[in-house]
Design brief:
Length: 370
Amino acid sequence: MSFAKQLAQYDNAAVHLAINSKTTVDVERALAKDKLDLDDFQALISPAAEGYIEEMAQRSMRLTQQRFGKTQQFYIPLYLSNMCSNICDYCGFSMGNKIRRLTLDMEELEAELDAIKQLGFDHILLVTGESERKVGMDYFRLVMPKIKARFSHVSMEVQPLDQAEYEELISLGLDAVMVYQETYNRHRYAEVHPKGRKRNFDYRLATPERLGDAGIRKMGIGALIGLDEWRSDCFYVAAHLQYLERKYWKSKFSISFPRLRPCEGGFQPKSVMSDKQLVQLICAYRLFNPDVELSLSTRESEHFRNHAIPLGITSMSAFSSTQPGGYADTSEKALEQFEISDDRRPEVVAEAVTNAGYQVVWKDWDRALG
């Protein structure tokens, strides 16, 4: 059974009601178990669990240290292009927004790679808008060897591709792909994606399965928090993770929890998650799955990121620029996808991690080591 068929068995209203009907008895029953199921996960993200966050945090911290040690992996996004052929109501790169469009040529790419290398990073995340015609496989075939030659770990967050295209990119050095469903609510998805190939909910939903069939080393999933009711969307992420782990047991998995940030277009979230609720969610994912990597981006504030380090997070971005060319040329700010919240330089974030008693991991993976 595909995950699309599994998702179709859920009723959004029933899921929303089930989560919000959980009681303290359900929460305590979940906390008493060593191995949690999806019903337990619903209890831990419910309003009833908000009085148990300290207990969840302590247990999440222990599980994370047992599995990952006291480490934080660092990565940095490289925006290759802000070209996009979709209209998405919530994204600064949306085709309808009047911003200057740029795709890095090879000279600009080299300048960006030089600037990022000087910052100390060895794990790079390639990001683009979704424009198959301007930034498709021909472009990826050109840039991937140049980037892989200089970075040990290369991840991608671009438009969903076919299995054969993923297989080719893996042969060129691609290690991981992040593909977020944005929202698992099919009707809401259609509302906020009025035009473009991204409107195809099912093709996007099946992307992790194409990645698994292609043999990707790691894949990241998640929902864009705020597009729909956050508790339901985050429950579906947990269900998706469980499905993928059982089917693609040779791959590793990561989850991110991006909260909507201000961007061009002025989109307003449908639901707002507080800092306290984000802590609850991080801990709930860790208790549900001790092996999954949990990633926190610079969308979150310096204060929040410093305090979240021991709670379950295993990887962080730092000093991110969300516009093409933003590392080599810091003078222009008009091309960015969204505003970041934590703009500290990487050495300052690293110092905060070290001061918290954790080790910064700049190089986590090298294909030559198997």
